Here is the input.
Amino acid sequence: MKKNITFTMIKPDAMENGYAGDILSIFLKSGFRVSAMKLVHLTISQAQTFYGIHSDKSFFEELVIFMTRSPIIVAVLEKNNAVEDFRKLIGSTNPDHAKEGTIRKLYATSMGENAVHGSDSEINAQIESSFFFAGNEIF
Ligand code: CMP
Here is the structure.
């Protein structure tokens, strides 16, 4: 049976501000199981490829510079209804619009520096997970 997973990153702003432990704790307390996790420092090329869908956006260069600024935590999380439940948990992309209690409301700095990533669909969860992890590294 295919696992119900989502993919997340704890982004440079949250790492630099010392929020990684608190954010991981919220993932676990909210019922997500860690299937794979590692610390990585993205290269410019990796960030450009990962965010290729946004390459025509005005904020693309800013996004690549931000995501390569510091090491980040990348992880695959498992739970029933993982993608949707995780998007609810992290809140809106813009922290000013994020609901109270969501991770971005609690920890994000701005629209660009928004603390965490969460896949927006099941297919993207698979694609994004396989960008960082081989099949035998997801447990
Ligand atoms: P995320 O949804 O995880 O993936 C795309 C990222 O692009 C998003 O988080 C933000 O970090 C960034 N982003 C989206 N919109 C903007 C924007 N208007 N200005 C700057 N960065 C943005």
Observations:
- Strands lie at 5-10, 33-40, 72-78, 116-118.
- Residues 122-132 form the longest helix (11 residues).
- The chain has seven helices and four strands.
